[in-house]
């Protein structure tokens, strides 16, 4: 989860997110360099004592400032596409969870090895204990094993929602009548938070997602799969 | 008079053009836009028309004198002619023949008061005059600060009369328990919150 007033990305909990953080740093550095260059040029324009405004015939310069941005764009596109295809790699998930969005809660279905279905509502403010995370904590978390590829099937029962967990680099729209799929592998145990990311009505801000990632051995003992 | 000086704090055409003009003495009201016009512009050093269209008698006499051999001009007139023409074109004192001492005195940094009639027929303002700064920035900065201050008053009023109380989770004890819980959960342990906590000594890292 983010701390208050956090602006940057959260630390990665999956390999894809690690790649995304690196890509973000790369793209941001390019952006900063271009912005700095433009601001410098603007500063020069505003403070020059030169007065000739009838400059024309600068074909060499025009060629350079066309080719160079094209090269920069290629340098951004290549890592971007690499990560895009990485997210679609076939990795034989060990577990499939269904996540169904409703107004205004999530339903999770563990149907691989049994029939566990439950709802996940945000804890109302009056039900919070001191130290709880307001607007983030839920009554029933999604318990999952670490270091195992997990497939999430995401859909909605009424309007558009979006299932997002920033630290895993996940955001997938929940669309009524459609099954969207996303996969991830968590590298660290812990509790990870996300919030509904598609406007869905009055309580759109009050239907968070909480994943509890635990070691596989403990998960296999069946704390989740026995009701 | 005082009003005119006040208006110099404003831009050249901010409120009433005529009043601002009288303060700045540089902006000209134009007549017919289809005719070549005189303009004092940094990037247009030699305007299409002279500043003074209708010469007075003394000005006409001066122009006649200029047409004749320049050796008949007095030292003052000759030097002034050359100096201010070069200065208008931006060359300044560099091109002055320092041997002519009288000229050195004339040209040395006193363009404004010493520019002679021949110059003023052709040009309204010298480069130094047209490029001079104004006091407008004081008005802008002052105005911006005033409105920022006013906004602060509005926000104070809102906090007192409009907003409700903050939720419980903003209480100091709650935040402390919440932070402890986040540290126990090892939230962002690589570069974020938990990475700043020393788990052995149970305190924030120095």
From TrEMBL, chain A:
Residue intervals of the Cytochrome oxidase subunit II copper A binding domain: 92-225
Q: Which organism is it from?
A: Homo sapiens (Human)
Q: What is this protein called?
A: Cytochrome c oxidase subunit 2
Q: Which UniProt keywords apply?
A: Copper, Electron transport, Magnesium, Membrane, Metal-binding, Mitochondrion, Mitochondrion inner membrane, Respiratory chain, Translocase, Transmembrane, Transmembrane helix, Transport
Recorded GO cellular component terms are:
mitochondrial inner membrane
Its domain of life reads Eukaryota
Q: Which CDD domains match?
A: CcO_II_C (cd13912)
Q: Sorted alphabetically, which SUPFAM superfamilies does this protein's record hold?
A: Cupredoxins, Cytochrome c oxidase subunit II-like, transmembrane region
Just give the chief location class: mitochondrion
Annotated Cytochrome oxidase subunit II transmembrane region profile domain residues: 1-91
């Amino acid at each position: 989860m983010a701390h208050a007033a956090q602006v940057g990305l959260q630390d990665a909990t999956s390999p894809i997110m690690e790649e995304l953080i690196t890509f973000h740093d790369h793209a941001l550095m390019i952006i900063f360099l271009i912005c700095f260059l433009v601001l410098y040029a603007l500063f020069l324009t505003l403070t020059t004592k030169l007065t000739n405004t009838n400059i024309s015939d600068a074909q060499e310069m025009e060629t350079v400032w066309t080719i160079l941005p094209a090269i920069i764009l290629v340098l951004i596109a290549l890592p971007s596409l690499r990560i895009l295809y990485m997210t679609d790699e076939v990795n034989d998930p060990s577990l499939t969870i269904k996540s169904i969005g409703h107004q205004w809660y999530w339903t999770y279905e563990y149907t691989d090895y049994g029939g566990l279905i439950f709802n996940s509502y945000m804890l109302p403010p009056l039900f919070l204990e001191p130290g709880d995370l307001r607007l983030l904590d839920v009554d029933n978390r999604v318990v999952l094993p670490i270091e195992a590829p997990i497939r999430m099937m995401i859909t909605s029962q009424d309007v558009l929602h979006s299932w997002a967990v920033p630290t895993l680099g996940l955001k997938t729209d929940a669309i009524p009548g459609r099954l969207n799929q996303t996969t991830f592998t968590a590298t660290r145990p812990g509790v990870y938070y996300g919030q509904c990311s598609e406007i869905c009505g009055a309580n759109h801000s009050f239907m968070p997602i909480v994943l509890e990632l635990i070691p596989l051995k403990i998960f296999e003992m069946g704390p989740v799969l026995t009701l | 008079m005082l009003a005119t000086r006040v208006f110099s704090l404003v831009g050249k055409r901010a409120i009433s053009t005529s009043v601002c003009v009288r303060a700045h003495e540089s902006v000209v009201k134009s007549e017919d836009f289809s005719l070549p016009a005189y303009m004092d512009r940094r990037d247009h050093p030699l305007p299409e028309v002279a500043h003074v269209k209708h010469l007075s008698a003394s000005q006409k006499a001066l122009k006649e004198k200029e047409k004749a051999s320049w050796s008949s001009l007095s030292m003052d007139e000759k030097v002034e002619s050359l100096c201010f023409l070069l200065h208008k074109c931006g060359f300044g004192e560099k091109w002055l023949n320092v041997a002519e001492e009288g000229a050195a005195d004339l040209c040395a940094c006193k363009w404004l008061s010493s520019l002679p009639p021949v110059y003023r027929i052709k040009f309204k303002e010298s480069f130094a005059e047209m490029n001079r700064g104004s006091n407008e920035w004081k008005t802008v900065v002052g105005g911006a600060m005033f409105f920022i201050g006013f906004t602060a008053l509005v926000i104070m009023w809102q906090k007192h009369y409009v907003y409700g109380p903050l939720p419980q989770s903003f209480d100091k004890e709650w935040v402390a328990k919440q932070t402890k819980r986040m540290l126990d959960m090892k939230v962002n342990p690589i570069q974020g919150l938990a990475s700043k906590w020393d788990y052995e000594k149970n305190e924030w890292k120095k």
